[in-house]
Amino acid sequence: SQQGEEDPQALSIQEGENATMNCSYKTSINNLQWYRQNSGRGLVHLILIRSNEREKHSGRLRVTLDTSKKSSSLLITASRAADTASYFCATVLAGGTSYGKLTFGQGTILTVHP
Amino acid sequence: DGGITQSPKYLFRKEGQNVTLSCEQNLNHDAMYWYRQDPGQGLRLIYYSQIVNDFQKGDIAEGYSVSREKKESFPLTVTSAQKNPTAFYLCASSKGWGSGSIGEQFFGPGTRLTVL
To answer: For residue B114, what are the contacts with CB-CB under 8 A and spacing of at least 6?
Structure first.
């Protein structure tokens, strides 16, 4: 099964509301990253949080990481219609043969209604 | 402009044919990656390369082959041995792994492959 699993699978909100997406993983990580994908396009990196960090901000984005629960959340504040996209978490494992590789979750589809 | 380009954007293949997807980057990145994305799914790693003339299998390498003869290029061949090749293929690159911490990957626009 996937290293990262996201919840919810789909989220529909109104413009101006906040959107929260969660990601859980199974094994120790070096870092966790969030990406956005607009329909039929490539992925765009949003934010990276290292295993020794608990919270990180970038503009309207806030990411938290709880390594004891092996989970992360992405909060988008004051959402806009342009935020409509799929959001993926991806983990880089801490060591072993998988070191350095990104493992993606299945994503959360966010729809922001004007 | 710096970035990653993939071509073609759409590709149609008959069963039994090999096809090659192009990926070029001018970001001077050492590492390059190929992913496959199926509808409603996340990305799965096919092959990756940390340096020129070296590459490793990812999680779903069967039926695919790659080469890394130049730093800026990492073409992917989908062979006839790949049983279900219809998918969206994404190429990515990143800085080298030597620092001990893996950073962001930069993605191309993707190639949508359809087997007829």
So the answer is: B10, B11, B12, B13, B86
Burial class (CB in 10 A: 0-12, 13-18, 19+), B9: exposed
Q: Which residue of B has its CA nearest to A5?
A: B42
When computed from its CA atoms, the radius of gyration of chain A, rounded to whole angstroms, is 14
Confidence of residue A30 (pLDDT cuts 50, 70, 90): confident
Token output for A42: 């490539």
Nearest to B97 by CA among B36, B63, B60, B56: B56
All residues at 6 or more sequence positions from B34 whose CB lies less than 8 Å from its CB, including other chains:
B21, B23, B45, B46, B47, B48, B58, B64, B66, B74, B76, B89, B90, B91, B92
Q: Which amino acid is at B115?
A: V
A105 → closest Cβ in B42, B106, B109? B42
B4, B23 Cβ separation under 8 angstroms? yes
Closest Cβ opposite residue B107 in set A31, A43, A100: A43
Binary contact (B107, A40; C-beta < 8 A)? no
Contact across the interface for A106 and B44, Cβ inside 8 Å:
no
| CA separation for the pair A71, B3 (Å, rounded) | 31
Domain annotation for chain A: domains and CATH numbers:
4-113 (2.60.40.10)
Q: pLDDT by residue (tens digit) across B75-92?
A: 999 999 888 999 999 999
